[in-house]
């Protein structure tokens, strides 16, 4: 099973011979920067993960010729982990969001009478794909920067971040290099892994550690698509969406998704249209699934209600809805509870003994992860951000209905509003994801205020789109 998501808990500290960061990419391999190990391949180093295995002796097993990339093998007594997905960024005028986790110098604290202590930081920001570096590096514009940059003679405030993995759209694309220009704390450079994907030593090392040496060419929608010819009919994003989830355990999560999709003016069908229980009418809900445009499935750690009648395979309603959506040809957008997120024991079949002591939900989740590209959520807001953008992208690829032609002026205004809504959705997803990983109460309150402001802006844009549609006699 391949993990396609950013996981801060995979990040590790490289504590010797030089200090830096790394990211576990599968098995016992750590991806990091080669310049941290002057003795090269075969040399010893020290790696630390305070939450899991502490500080251990490890070995540098590979470096990439012509690229600041290294692989470190952890000792056998460290538990292995699932492999990550690798990718290559496209070229073009667009910008994409990135995430990384490391231990920059600006996050260190020095208690009275003690040595400085490292602090880990989740850094996100943007990569402008058209930006170039003389060495062919990716130019990163981080959203969190040092508040008061240190003088040049003290080195860069980003020291310690070298070796952190750069993750875009859930896949690892680059490794953070040393900060080349301390006078520019708001700009970083990363070594793209596209330089090493075809190198035979890289491929052999990954295969030796049961990691597939494959990568995906990532593609991102244009941020500013051209205004279409007014003679061409314009597709609208409104859709009829079936929201599938078990009831009691996912109530708050389902409500968050329902609210944001309704705010975006979609028609959302879910169990609230039946009764407030898992045991709602089977034939009615399957017919409703078939009559929708998009299926959105939320899966936690409960298998859910299994109808007695007309159900020879003894599948839960949630699983039956998923299969009905496939048989009906609906796009299926799947969101699974993150295994590392806190979850009440009473909502885990493995704890309550329900559904064969959790075996049914474990098998269903495994099937979804192997068969489909899934996203993982931690909180209701995080899920709302993921689902809103996923639905928007799905409808851009497969519009569900066509609106009437509009006069040129109205069409231009509509297109500009649609672009504004798309940008707001991207910011909304970014803010809700940051909130899911933020521990500081001050940062959480700041993000919550930002999310509320974005929701108000999105609702205002939707109201303006509605007004244009009424003038055009469309929506």
Quick rundown:
By secondary structure, this protein is α+β, with helices and mostly antiparallel strands. The protein is 30% helix and 22% strand.
List the keywords.
single chain, 22% strand, 6-stranded antiparallel β-sheet, alpha+beta, 475 residues, 4 domains, Rossmann fold, Thrombin, subunit H, 6-stranded antiparallel barrel, globular
Give a description of the structure.
The protein is built from ten helices and 21 strands. With 475 residues, it is an alpha+beta fold. It folds into four domains: 8-73, Thrombin, subunit H, CATH 2.40.10.10; 87-200, Thrombin, subunit H, CATH 2.40.10; 237-401, Rossmann fold (3-Layer(aba) Sandwich), CATH 3.40.50; 404-475, Methane Monooxygenase Hydroxylase, Chain G, domain 1. Strand 5 (54-63) and strand 6 (70-73) form a beta hairpin. Residues 221-237 and 402-407 have low confidence and may be disordered.
How is the topology of this model organized?
Blueprint: E1 11-16, E2 20-26, E3 29-32, E4 44-49, E5 54-63, E6 70-73, E7 87-88, E8 95-102, E9 121-128, E10 138-142, E11 165-168, E12 171-176, E13 188-192, H1 200-208, E14 216-217, E15 235-236, E16 240-244, H2 251-263, E17 267-269, H3 282-290, E18 294-299, H4 317-327, E19 332-337, H5 349-352, H6 354-357, H7 359-371, E20 374-377, H8 380-397, E21 401-402, H9 408-437, H10 441-472
């Amino acid at each position: 099973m391949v993990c396609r998501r950013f996981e801060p808990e995979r990040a590790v500290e490289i504590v010797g011979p030089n200090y830096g960061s790394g990211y576990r990419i599968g098995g016992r391999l750590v991806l990091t920067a080669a310049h941290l190990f002057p003795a090269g391949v075969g040399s010893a180093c020290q790696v630390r993960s305070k939450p899991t295995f502490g500080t251990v002796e490890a070995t540098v097993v590979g470096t990439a010729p012509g690229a600041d990339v290294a692989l470190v093998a952890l000792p056998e007594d460290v538990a292995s982990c699932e492999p990550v997905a690798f990718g290559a960024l496209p070229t073009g005028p667009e910008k994409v969001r990135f995430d990384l986790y490391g231990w920059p110098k600006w996050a260190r604290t020095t208690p009275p009478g003690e040595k400085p202590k490292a602090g880990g930081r989740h850094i996100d920001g943007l990569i402008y794909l058209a930006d170039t570096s003389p060495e062919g590096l990716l130019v990163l514009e981080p959203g969190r920067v040092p508040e008061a940059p240190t003088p040049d003679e003290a080195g860069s405030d980003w020291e310690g971040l070298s070796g952190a993995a750069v993750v875009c759209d859930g896949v690892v694309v680059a490794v953070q290099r040393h900060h080349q220009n301390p006078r520019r704390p708001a700009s970083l450079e990363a070594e793209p892994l596209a330089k090493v994907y075809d190198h035979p030593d890289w491929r052999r090392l990954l295969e030796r550690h049961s990691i597939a040496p494959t990568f995906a060419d990532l593609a991102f929608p244009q941020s500013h698509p051209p205004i279409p010819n007014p003679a061409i009919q314009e597709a609208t994003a409104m859709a009829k969406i079936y929201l599938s989830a078990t009831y009691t355990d996912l109530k708050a999560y389902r409500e968050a998704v329902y609210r944001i999709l309704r705010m975006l003016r979609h028609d959302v069908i879910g169990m609230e249209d039946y009764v407030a229980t898992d045991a709602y009418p089977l034939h009615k809900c399957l017919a409703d699934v078939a009559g929708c445009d998009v299926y959105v499935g939320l899966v936690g750690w409960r298998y859910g209600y299994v109808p007695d009648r007309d159900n020879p395979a003894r599948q839960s309603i949630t699983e039956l809805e998923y299969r009905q959506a496939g048989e009906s040809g609906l796009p299926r957008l799947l969101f699974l509870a993150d295994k590392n997120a806190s979850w009440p024991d009473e909502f885990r079949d493995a704890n309550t003994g329900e559904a064969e002591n959790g075996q049914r939900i474990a098998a269903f989740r495994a099937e979804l992860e192997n068969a489909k590209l899934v996203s993982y959520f931690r909180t209701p807001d995080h899920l709302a951000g993921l689902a809103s953008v996923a639905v928007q992208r799905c409808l851009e690829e497969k519009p569900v209905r066509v609106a009437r032609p509009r006069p040129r002026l109205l069409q231009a205004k509509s297109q500009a509003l649609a672009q504004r809504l798309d940008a707001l959705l991207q910011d909304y997803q970014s803010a809700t994801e940051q909130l899911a990983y933020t521990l500081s109460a001050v940062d959480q309150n700041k993000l919550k205020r930002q999310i509320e402001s974005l929701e108000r802006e999105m609702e205002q844009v939707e109201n303006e789109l509605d007004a244009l549609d009424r003038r055009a006699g469309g929506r």
